[in-house]
Amino acid sequence: MSSRTVQPGLSFEYVLWIFTRISGLTLILLSAIGVISAFALGARTQVDLPTLMRWTFFPNPNHVINSDIPDVTLGWANAFWQVMQILIVFFAVTHSFNGFRVVIEDFIGQSIARPFIRGFIFLLWMFTLVIAVYVVIFS
């Protein structure tokens, strides 16, 4: 009979497991804040449902400009929506790439390729975040 010892403390896998749960809840919270904020800015009378969903999950001022809403710059194109968009992008991309990492590592097991695949996923994650933040800030 072998005895297993439980190691106290935080491991990399445990921290990412906790992050995945928290980021999922955070995405739901940010989505609710986005919908409520859009309603507060007049979306309930000025846009249809597909436009509202597009605005909530990727609030780009061009989405509102293309949907015949007057005076976009008064409420929609501001720092609040940029921060919301960056937060949604960060949590969604990080959540999804962590899930991608877990699935890939389940298939490859304890292989010599594991560090290279982790490095590639990390670089892909960083590239995606940089491009997304660039689009948010300069669109």
Quick structural summary:
It is built from 7 helices and no strands. The protein is mainly alpha-helical and 139 residues long. The longest helix is centred in the C-terminal third of the chain and has 30 residues, at 79-108.
Describe this structure in words.
- Helix 1 (12-40) crosses helix 3 (49-57), helix 1 runs antiparallel to helix 6 and helix 6 (79-108) packs antiparallel against helix 7.
- The protein has one domain.
- The longest helix is centred in the last third of the chain and has 30 residues, at 79-108.
- It has helices at 12-40, 43-46, 49-57, 61-65, 72-75, 79-108, 114-138.
- The chain is mainly α.
- Helices cover 76% and strands 0% of the residues.
- The radius of gyration is 20 Å and the shape is elongated.
- The protein contains 7 helices and no strands.
SSE layout and pairing:
Elements: H1 12-40, H2 43-46, H3 49-57, H4 61-65, H5 72-75, H6 79-108, H7 114-138
Helix pairs in contact: 1-3, 1-6, 6-7
Number of helices in the DSSP assignment: 7
Domain count, please report it: 1
Radius of gyration: 20 Å
Q: What's the end-to-end separation, in Å?
A: 62 Å
Secondary-structure element pattern, one letter each: HHHHHHH
Note poorly predicted spans: none
Q: Summarize the amount of helix as a percent range.
A: over 70%
Shape: elongated
Structural class: mainly alpha
Number of strands: 0
Provide mean pLDDT, rounded.
Answer: 81
Largest sheet: none
Quaternary class? single chain
Beta-strand percentage range: under 5%
